[in-house]
Design brief:
Radius of gyration: 15 Å
Strand order of the largest sheet: 3-2-1-4-5
Oligomer: single chain
Bound molecules: adenosine-5'-diphosphate
Strand content: 15-25%
Shape: globular
Order of helices and strands: EHEHEHEHEH
Number of strands: 5
Largest sheet: 5 strands, parallel
Helix content: 25-40%
Length: 152
């Protein structure tokens, strides 16, 4: 049986912290589907089409990675992709409390297991929301975003 995981998130934008989780999770799975959650009530900075395009470009040379947007429950998306696992990253105690509750509910509802990766120290302070804030003040955030193959 193929080992399939989804890595769900808003990825508004996708950062080097997110990429670090993907790189560390890759050896464990046959396939990772990066699921961009679309929430009609949550205002985003980057349009969904742009987020998909950027991620497809970033991972175009990695056949184990798929990119897809979804607007359902994360567990339903996991089931749709035949994924047995949900990958999430843990930066802080605050992340922990939040992830634990959701992971337990998801496990109870569908049996899907959540695997948590502790953030590597150098990525701890990087968050999409902080990057959006910097962008709103016109700051250059390039150092927090993974370079796409075509920009290398
Ligand atoms: P969400 O809105 O679902 O929290 P995010 O795009 O903010 O979506 O994050 C997706 C996942 O990546 C979450 O598990 C989050 O904890 C993790 N994550 C976010 N930033 C980092 C980082 N700098 N290092 C490691 N994991 C991170």
């Amino acid at each position: 049986m193929e080992r399939i995981a989804i890595f769900p998130g808003s990825f508004d934008p996708f950062t080097i912290g997110h990429d670090n989780i993907i790189q560390r999770a890759l050896p464990l799975f046959d396939k990772i589907v990066i699921g961009i959650g679309v929430n009609a009530n949550k205002k985003s900075l980057f349009p969904i089409e742009q987020r998909i395009r950027t991620l497809k470009e970033l991972y175009k040379n990695n056949p184990k990675i798929e990119i897809e947007a979804y607007d359902t429950l994360t567990t339903h998306f996991a089931q749709k992709k035949n994924a047995q696992f949900i990958i999430r990253g843990l930066r802080s105690v605050r992340d922990f409390e939040y992830e634990r509750d959701i992971a337990q509910m998801n496990k109870h509802a569908t049996g899907v297991e959540t695997l948590l990766f502790f953030t590597e120290h150098q990525y701890e302070c990087i968050s999409s929301s902080a990057i959006r804030e910097l962008i709103s003040y016109g700051e250059d955030v390039t150092e927090y975003l993974p370079p796409t193959p075509s920009s290398l």
